Structure formats: C-alpha cells, structure tokens
Amino acid sequence: MLRNITLGQYYPVDSIIHRLDPRVKLVATLLFIISLFVGRYTGYIVATLFLLTVIKLSKVPLRFIVRGMKAIVFIMLFAVVFNLFLTPGEVAVSFWVLSITWEGIRLAAMLAIRLILLLMGSSVMTLTTTPGNLTDGLEKLMRPLRVIRIPVHEVAMMMSIALRFIPILMEETDKIMKAQIARGADFESGNLIKKAKSLVPLLVPLFISAFRRANDLAMAMEARCYQGGEHRTKMKPLIYRWQDGVAYLLVLAYFAACIVAGRLLF
C-alpha cells in the first residue's frame, strides 16, 4: 500500500502540463480545490471532466494516479460512515439503534467525491512539477507577503521539502516494515488495539530515520553556506509564456462554469 502513495512524487514525461509555469499549476490547483466546495452536483461533473482532460494532457497514466487513492480508503470510509449514521434528517433505513438519513447519504456522497477529486487534483500538480520548480513557484506567488515581513523563501522551501520527503519516508517505512516482518512481526492479524500496538516497532525506527535525514539535510545546507533567499539568483528564472496565459484563461473559465453549473442546475 505504501508504494501506491503518489502525492509528492514526480512523473518525468514531456507534456503540455509539465511545460506549464509552476505558478499556473499552483493557482489552478487552488481554484480546483475551491470549486469542489462551492459547486454542487452538476458542478462535480464539470470538475471530473476537467480533471480527466488535464490528466489526459499530462500523459500521466490514470491508473498510476488512482493507485494513490488506496492510501485514503480507510479515512474515506470512516468519514462516509460517520456522516451516514450521525447526520440528522429524514430516515431512509433503520435497524437496531442505528439509522441512515437521506441527508446523511447526500453528505457522505459529496464528501467521498470531494476527497477523491481533491487528492487526484493535488497529485496531478506534484506529478507534473519538480520540487525545485514548485519551490520557485510558491516563492513567486507569495512574494507580496514579504511586505508584512513573512519569510517567503523559507516557507516555500519548507513546503517543498515536506512534499519531497513524503515518498522518501514512505519508501523508508516500506523497508522497515519488511525488515520487521522478516523478524516475525505481524501487522495484519488481531483487533484494532493489537494492530496499533504492533506499529510501535515500526514507528520508533521511522522517527529516528526521519530525524537523522532532517539533521543530514540541515548539515548539508549549512556546509554550503545556505542563508535563505536574500540576494540569491535563479539559474532558470520563471518567465510566463503565451501558453501560460491561455492556461490561466481556461482555468478561470472552468471555475466560472463549475460555479454556474453547481448553482443553477440540479
């Protein structure tokens, strides 16, 4: 399952989406996420068609992105069940002391769709943008915040490192888990409490490995006299092209269409 996590990974291929400016992809992802919460019903259809079109243009296999959904199946099921049984309203199905309402079914369906589209949309951004470009794009977009003395470069660097560490830590977790299984550890059998206790031999070495990697990274940055973003130049500065302008217009058109479809139609 750990190998199925796609968030934070980069899929190297030449496509229109890969060649877009990272600022365009960041803004598009933000607007896509917002559209999932302001649009309803038909708006989700528009969002799904838009996302499938972007995935097709990115040349990233759909099955590769769908594989990442396995990582949130438990969270999704928990959220869906929580909404099904604890949402008040008109009862649709009742058994014993539990009841499922029509409002709960509607909220659970909307939540599941939002989670799926949100994760897939975020995965497309990281799969088509290198960590370096992602850092540059974040820094450029947040540059106006420097007026209020927010360390924009440092914030962008931390977010980029956090995303970059996701696949690294997942790979490290997979290695530790296989080593523990080879020593007789059992992560599958037993009840929920027993499974939680069995994770202790996994979490301790994982935290140690994470702190060690963080310390090695800090020492490497210090050895190279890293002093933040002041007076630093870019080898490949970000420059908008006509394709980026077209992409902005298409994203804004999608956002408007998603809101209109979600508000005016069923």
Cα distance, first to last residue?
37 Å
Q: Main β-sheet, in a few words?
A: 2 strands, antiparallel
Would you identify the regions where 5 or more consecutive residues have pLDDT less than 50? none
SS field, number of helical segments: 11
Structural class: mainly alpha
How large, in whole angstroms, is the Cα Rg?
A: 22 Å
In the sheet with the most strands, the strands line up as 1-2
User: Helical content, roughly?
Assistant: 55-70%
* SSE arrangement, N to C: HHHHHEEHHHHHH
Q: Whole-number average pLDDT?
A: 80
Question: How would you describe this structure to a colleague?
Answer:
The protein is mainly alpha-helical. It has one domain (about 1-265). The protein has helices at about 15-20, 20-40, 40-60, 60-65, 75-85, 100-125, 130-140, 150-180, 190-200, 200-225, 240-265, and strands at about 90-95, 100. It has a two-stranded antiparallel sheet. Strand 1 (about 90-95) and strand 2 form a beta hairpin. Helix 2 (about 20-40) packs antiparallel against helix 6. The longest helix is centred in the middle third of the chain and has 31 residues, at about 150-180. The model has no long low-confidence stretch (mean pLDDT about 80).
